[in-house]
Amino acid sequence: MPIRVLLAEDQAMVRGALAALLKLESDLEVLGSAGDGEEAWEMVRRLRPDLLLTDIEMPKLTGLELAAKVRDTGMPTKIVILTTFARPGYLRRALEAGASGYLLKDSPAEKLADAIRKVHRGGRAVDAELALDAWSEADPLSDRERQVLRLAGEGMQANDIATQLNLSHGTVRNYLSEAIGKLGVDNRIEAYRIARQKGWL
């Protein structure tokens, strides 16, 4: 039986190229592809693929949020992250969210197919050097601090963040202050830049 793969990638050209690439492999079957995280989640629930190949940054749900949803519902679908981000923080969060593979988009094509097979068999497929770096520096942010800092870095004001997350204005300011303090910077913009650079957002 072929390995049934679902693709989640918001860039149409990359999505099409990945589908064409995987269809060349006789033991892989591409069930479909999704352009955002919510569409991917609906397809995962409906099609029950053996493996989900997903980018990290996508509209509506990120690849990390998608992986966590699959993990939390106990589905047997394996997760492989395919991304441009060679950031240890992203890798660490991906593994914590339940992903079994983490590959970079500039990897050779044959490496992707081999990684899918390895993960399907129950193994892990992660760049060794990136894996070593991922555990050298712990992410100091809590989930809520990360959420608030991400929205602040995208230009939202504290009042708007409070409304969106159903928090008080003071609580939002506290989360931002905690994040800024933990990252040892002077303001939310610097905190956002460093957290993104390290893959913590």
Automatic annotation (TrEMBL):
Residues 134-199 form the HTH luxR-type domain. The modification 4-aspartylphosphate is found at D55. Residues 4-120 form the Response regulatory domain. Keywords: DNA-binding, Phosphoprotein. One of its GO terms (biological process) is regulation of DNA-templated transcription. It comes from the Bacteria. InterPro entries: CheY-like_superfamily, Sig_transdc_resp-reg_C-effctor, Sig_transdc_resp-reg_receiver, Tscrpt_reg_LuxR_C, WalR-like. GO terms for molecular function: DNA binding. This is DNA-binding response regulator. It comes from Ahniella affigens.
